[in-house]
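Table S2 (continued). Query chain:
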Amino acid sequence: MELSLLDKIKRLVIIALVADDELMEKLVLKGGNAISIAYEVGNRGSADLDFSMADDFEDLEATFATIEKSLVTVFAEEGLHAFDVRWHQRPSKLAEHLKSFWGGYLLEFKLTPAAQARQHADDLAGLRRNSLTFDEQQNRKFTVDISPFEYCELKVEKTLNGYTYYVYPPQLVVFEKLRAICQQIPAYGEIVGGHKSLGRARDFYDIYTLAHEFTIDSTSEAALEVLRQVFGAKRVPEAYLATIADYRDLHRADYKSVEANVTAGTQLLGFDAYFDYVVAHFSRLLEPSSAAEPAATA
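Corresponding output:
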């Protein structure tokens, strides 16, 4: 099956990021694109890429200069010109006590056909007007989120067009999505200083999809230790997991983003089916007195 422009771009970005040996060893693909690209399952696309790393970059300027050079080179080989390559830290200001676990980086860039780049070589405004759009929302910026200080112990080696890269295993994708859901609980903002609660309907959908495609060990002692490590990496209280049922309306409001991003012809079950599944199978995992339930499977 021929890839869409967005899918081609995502794969080329992965190649650009792992073409450098040091970055290849450090960066680990995660999130929705780990599901679709590395494991070829699921039918919900996302217009950006997400990577984790266990520590942080030592030299930010040098690292992102390397990334920019690699992006330009890889896309030039495909007849595309990468420009407006920018990065910034998120959040831009971080309290000292948060620097050991919080924050991250946003990389963004635009693309235009090489012929347009030559035509508008001295006209940046013209380049921007003729930059490619990636999705139905007509977005012109492609973005990459990079999150340091994550739990990456279980990373899996994969190859893409001859390039080695690392990716989360399905279990770790599920556990981090559970954590992301818990990070939307308003009290978490007090831990990290003003974190805004946002709906994460896509995470409920993705967890459901993964649990029906793979056997996800979520109840063994080893699995629970991994789950605790994932929560601990971002100082998310384990008790939050038992309260996710209280935030149905917050996440329901985001369900339109799932409907907008699944592939054509996908039969959706509706938000409540995905939400109820996650609550039933995962919300009690970290309760101190709870007895282990069977692992979530299809």
